[in-house]
Amino acid sequence: MHVPLDKVGWKGRRRCPDWLQDKLKGGRWALRALNQPLSNIPLDKWKAGPRTTNGNEQAHHNVNLDGTQLSLLAGIMHGMEFDSRLLRGRLAFATSGVQTRYTLGTDWQRAARNIKRGENVARKVRASHDAAIDESKAGLLAAVSDARDQVSVLSASSSTQSQASDARKRLRELDETIPQQRTHLLKLAKLGSGSVDISNASFECFVSVAFAELSLLLWGRHITLNFAVPSL
Asked: CA torsion angle for 127, 131, 137, 138 (degrees, to 10)?
């Protein structure tokens, strides 16, 4: 059996060859427990066994619940009590069908539980994304409403020169913020569940562009706005 030392990560050290020699010539059970061709366990029983050592690790945890760092006598007594409880539980299940827990911890049940947990996590993530989409949509519509208000100020014949100047200044600011908000909204829409409708927000954005450009052409110095026709 040859294991390249550079793959192990201990190249040039004595520790790796010593470890391999111990597993090959000393405690041979380790490699046999990991490799079926080296083991005397029949193939059908090998495949029927668990694929992980989680059961053994759980057994260590169960035993440790009775106490750790005990004296030799206390350890023997606690171990006897643990074995007695475990045996009584097995006998109760064999004779009456009463289990020590509601469901057995089989591999397929653990897999189903993991799938259910994954679905719950994905549902919560989508809900948070939908909430962010609603918030971004509300912000975009508020900016569009603000743009319409500024257009109304420019279109009103009673507006003073100062009011018109402030309206143009605000429209210049919205010229930068609204496209950014719309781009952010479209990015969030790709992460959501699709239940939030953003078509009306994009349409409002397009309508505000037409009114703003028309008003600027009629009532003041023309400003080239960066709004684009939405494509969903």
From this structure: 150
CA distances from 218 to 116, 160, 197 (A): 61, 15, 34
Contacts 24+ apart (CB under 8 A), 108-115: none
Spatial contact of 171 and 212, defined as CB atoms under 8 Å apart: yes
pLDDT digits (tens, 9 = 90+) for 71-122: 999 999 998 999 998 888 888 888 888 777 776 666 677 778 888 888 898 8
With beta carbons less than 8 A apart as the criterion, state whether 185 and 133 touch.
yes
Between CA 6 and CA 21 the distance in angstroms is: 17
C-alpha to C-alpha distance for 61 and 128, rounded to whole angstroms: 37
Q: What is the pTM of this model?
A: 0.49
How do residues 100-109 score in pLDDT, each as one tens digit? 777 666 667 7
Residue 157 confidence class, pLDDT cut points 50, 70, 90: low
DSSP state letter for 232: -
| Euclidean distance between CA atoms 74 and 89, whole angstroms | 23
CA distance 50 to 107: 8
What residue ranges do the domains of the chain occupy?
1-51, 68-98, 126-219
CA dihedral over 6, 51, 55, 105, signed as positive or negative: positive
